[in-house]
Amino acid sequence: xxxxxxxxxxxxxxxxxxxxxxxxxxxxxxxxxxxxxxxxxxxxxxxxxxxxxxxxxxxxxxxxxxxxxxxxxxxxxxxxxxxxxxxxxxxxxxxxxxxxxxxxxxxxxxxxxxxxxxxxxxxxxxxxxxxxxxxxxxxxxxxxxxxxxxxxxxxxxxxxxxxxxxxxxxxxxxxxxxxxxxxxxxxxxxxxxxxxxxxxxxxxxxxxxxxxxxxxxxxxxxxxxxxxxxxxxxxxxxxxxxxxxxxxxxxxxxxxxxxxxxxxxxxxxxxxxxxxxxxxxxxxxxxxxxxxxxxxxxxxxxxxxxxxxxxxxxxxxxxxxxxxxxxxxxxxxxxxxxxxxxxxxxxxxxxxxxxxxxxxxxxxxxxxxxxxxxxxxxxxxxxxxxxxx
Length: 389
What we know:
- The protein has helices at residues 9-38, 41-48, 65-122, 140-189, 195-227, 237-244, 265-281, 331-337, 344-354; strands at residues 233-236, 251-256, 260-263, 291-298, 304-310, 358-363, 369-374.
- By secondary structure, the chain is an alpha+beta fold.
- It starts with 8 loop residues before the first helix and ends in a 15-residue tail after the last strand.
- Residues 332-338 and 383-389 have low confidence and may be disordered.
């Protein structure tokens, strides 16, 4: 059975590191001191007799210089040996003390980290609103805690968005199923139902099934867009828009310059279809002067772009950004008419994000919406042309 190390293992490693550094520094200091003492000139001067007057030979109480040198060297050697022994003993004692001090200091340094670990273990999907909220100096540990809090904030937002998406998707999928069940029950409850009434009921059930199929396709497209690109190929936004321009219901004005994009053609087509359908569907009622304006081209930085503008009802400026959220509809009138699934612009945002671009929406003061898409510049790849020398 594999033993999992506890969070204190790093404390032991830090203690050993601190102690090893202290022992190495102490040994170097001791060696340096011993070398300085061994190379000291004081003993050598005394032994050689430099600086002293001449010693009369043969006088009582006098020693020969060789004897004096021998005695001095012996005393000096004993002192150096004693210095080395006592220094080693002191170094060993201080090494033990450094282990204890290193353990304490490592514990103090790692105390905020242990607090963060305990707090992180308490946080789960049910209490993602909690934060570490580490106080103290602005050091690496606090930066790590702040980064972890930022990750928790993003996770909380993702979980809330996922819960809202699942709830909305369940509601959207349940509506056609409920409608189908109601139609079947009403038809079966009529014992005198004619062939025409049965046919009408089947047509309504079929229409509800097609509505459900379109919603499922939209959900699959959204999931695929959020997963990223599986392949990339050359796509010209101008050609795609030219093939998907609406041909009835509204007046269409188009300025289509080349806009090369390197991406997934199916997703780009879905982006264009959703934007054009949205511009036509959420426009002025029939009989009024409704219009749609489409532009494709490249900006000054060489980035391909698409801009779709339409007439329509007045939309509050603060509601434009929320249009890219799944199942977002504006006003009770749109909900009552069941005009779309509320996934069109969310799919557009996912497709643009998968291609590394950006999408913005802004409202028109006189009514309608302007949606601008900017994608990364297309850089053609291929063999370089030969250069003539």
